[in-house]
Amino acid sequence: MGEYPSRSVNATAGDSGVTSGYARGAGSGVSPSSYQEPPLGGGSALPKKTRFSVETGFRGLSTAAGAMVLVIIIAIAVFLVSKAVPALQANTANFLTEKTWFPNDAEPVFGIAALAFGTVLSSIIALIVAVPIALAIALFLSHYAPRRLATPLGFVIDLLAAVPSVVFGLWGRDVLQVPVRNFSVWLNEYFGWLPIFGGEGPFGQSIMLGGLVLAIMVLPIVTSLSREVFQQTPGMNEEAALALGATRWEMIRTAVLPYGKPGVIAAVMLGLGRALGETIALALTLGITFNISFNLIENGGNSIAANIANTFGEANATGRGALIASGLVLFAITLVVNMTARAIIYRRREFRDSAA
Amino acid sequence: MKLQRSGFVAGIALTATIALTACGSDNESGGSGSGASAAPGSCVSGALTAQGSTAQKNAMDEWIKAYQGQCADAKVDYQGTGSGAGIEAFIAGTADFAGSDSALKEEEVAQADAKCPGGKALNLPMVIGPVAVVYNVQGVDGLQLSPATLAKIFAGGITKWNDAAIAAENTGAKLPDATIETVHRSDESGTTDNFTKYLSKTAEAEWTYGNAKAWKAPGGTGAAKSDGVATKVKSTPNTISYVELSFAENSDLQMAKIKNGAGEYVELTGASAGKTFENATVKGTDGDLALELDYNTKTAGAYPIVLVTYEIACSKGSAKAKEIQSFLKYTSSTAGQTALAELGYAPLPETLRAKVEASVASIA
């Protein structure tokens, strides 16, 4: 503390020795406050600092906004945990391994095992179906389709993202279920030796139906983000590939796809986020059973969010706490997925930058 | 600039118009209101808020529409928040009366009575909702089922439609060699509660899962809400499920005849469901009409799978006793009960209706 004044005095003295013109300006600009911090480099030419400027005001506002996010998140976390803990304490079964969900009984029994399994399985099916199609559409729109066709098609795909999920759910329940049932019977007849297509039936209202409906809901997100990424491929890279004699597909393989990889991964993760959190569409299309089975075509399946939608209405205090606990598990799953995605993107970027 | 100014002028004009019309309509409603309330003698003007059971939501909507049509100054608001939430709101004092799928439980009685200084909380049976057993099997009309067979089907003991147990109860019917797909409610519901209560009371040996709002038996397929169950059964062959009568009728589903305690297979109609209540014993005293249903009813022509929903209101001490009495007097009247027939509810049988009416008349 004691050092600063003497230093700054020296500094201004040195300054004035070199350029007298600037020194005078600095001298007048340096208000008593500037003695408390060491002046750096050519700071003397900057506009003079006032106590309440727009700069400090805006800085304060944005800091407050940033802090507010943290406060809200912490408040939500505290609220959720405080509701969930009493329910978990009342639980007479192991929350992590129990498959059934009866938290409203006199002796509550509930667990997350079957729900978490169904959530992850239905989302994986959705991504396996949706991602290849979405990437193909995105490449078509960005590199194959004539511009006159690409723009309206892009609009239509974006519109698909705006359809409410309950509409997809009702469509899946009332329209898609019959073809899926017929397809499932066919699969069971010819591929029944595979455990995932085995079973005795009944078929139709299965995790496959739920996964397909989810795939359609995820499709527009992945498509529209990937298209944006592919369109940003530097023209020079594409032209270079073509100049070296690459065909259209080879150019896409060597120039567009590597460039777009981190963006595509981010798009897929956003899609996965939507699939994991989807509520009403799955509540309407899944067969809602509480067991863990890899069979894709038999009636059954369940998910955390669908279970919340189904049981919230008639839940008592313990039941609500149990549902909040299940929501926290979903939150944890989503967090893990997002962090993995970020780690992948980060590694890819480093790899690409060092290679370049 | 010009646009802005004209917008400003338009704004002023609009505000002025709204202010003027507001004054005008105010006067008007006052005039017509006083005229209407003078006409029918039983109207008590005032606002009521109530909530609870979703099973009687449609009945309430119909009643409120009719009641407010008669009494322009009366206002009733009923929200279908669920029976548990309704009772909680009644105890907390935010609901003037509550709708519930079951009578007050022992631990709730004391809390509810505390809301009625000088009186107690009454359970008034008001709406009867028959539950239909619906199925979709081609070429099989008028399927007949005993409680034991029904329980075995839903518990997974019987898996084929041409099982010997079903065939024995349906002589001559062409039952297919197909797997039975049982469908149940995937959300928690009073319908499931009443259906499983019926099975646990009439087929104790075959049904070991007790009764609850959540479906406890293993297997079967879940469908969300009554509408989901009806759609599933309509669209999928070889299914069987249970759903409120109104949904079964609206979707034009096949309904099974159920064997009652007298040994006859009875078709579900409003009248046959009401008969189950003719011999129901009243557990409550002093105007409280909590019912003890006999699912094994021996009454001839009675359809046994029914649920009854109650209105829970104070016998004395409520600040809005007059308003509550006036509204419930309408709902328990013959006119009020017959208004429900088209909605898939069954009217209260006359003996019971008279008791409810007397109970309502004693509210002070």
TrEMBL record, chain A:
Keyword annotations from UniProtKB, A to Z: Cell membrane, Membrane, Phosphate transport, Transmembrane, Transmembrane helix, Transport
Any one GO molecular function term: phosphate transmembrane transporter activity
Domain of life: Bacteria
GO biological process: phosphate ion transport
Membrane topology: Multi-pass membrane protein
Annotated ABC transmembrane type-1 domain residues: 116-341
Intracellular or extracellular location(s): Cell membrane
Keyword Metal-binding in annotation: no
Regions that span the bilayer: 58-81, 109-141, 153-172, 203-222, 279-297, 322-345
InterPro entries xrefs: MetI-like, MetI-like_sf, Phosphate_PstC, Phosphate_Transport_Permease
Gene Ontology cellular component terms for the protein in this record: plasma membrane
Primary site of residence: membrane
Protein's job: Part of the binding-protein-dependent transport system for phosphate; probably responsible for the translocation of the substrate across the membrane.
Similarity remark: Belongs to the binding-protein-dependent transport system permease family. CysTW subfamily.
Protein name in the entry: Phosphate transport system permease protein
Name of the gene: pstC
Automatic annotation (TrEMBL), chain B:
Binding annotation for phosphate: 53-55, 83, 101, 189-191
GO biological process: phosphate ion transmembrane transport
Matching InterPro entries: ABC_phos-bd_PstS, PBP_domain, Phosphate-bind_PstS
PROSITE patterns on file: PROKAR_LIPOPROTEIN
Segment forming the signal sequence: 1-21
Keyword Chloroplast recorded: no
Record-annotated PBP domain positions: 38-332
GO molecular function: phosphate ion binding
UniProt KW keywords: Phosphate transport, Signal, Transport
Gene Ontology cellular component list: ATP-binding cassette (ABC) transporter complex
NCBIfam families to which the protein is assigned, alphabetical: 3a0107s03
PANTHER family hit by this protein: PHOSPHATE-BINDING PROTEIN PSTS (PTHR42996)
Stated family: Belongs to the PstS family.
Protein name: Phosphate-binding protein
Provenance organism: Actinoplanes aureus
Lineage, broadest ranks: Bacteria, Bacillati, Actinomycetota, Actinomycetes, Micromonosporales
Underlying gene: pstS
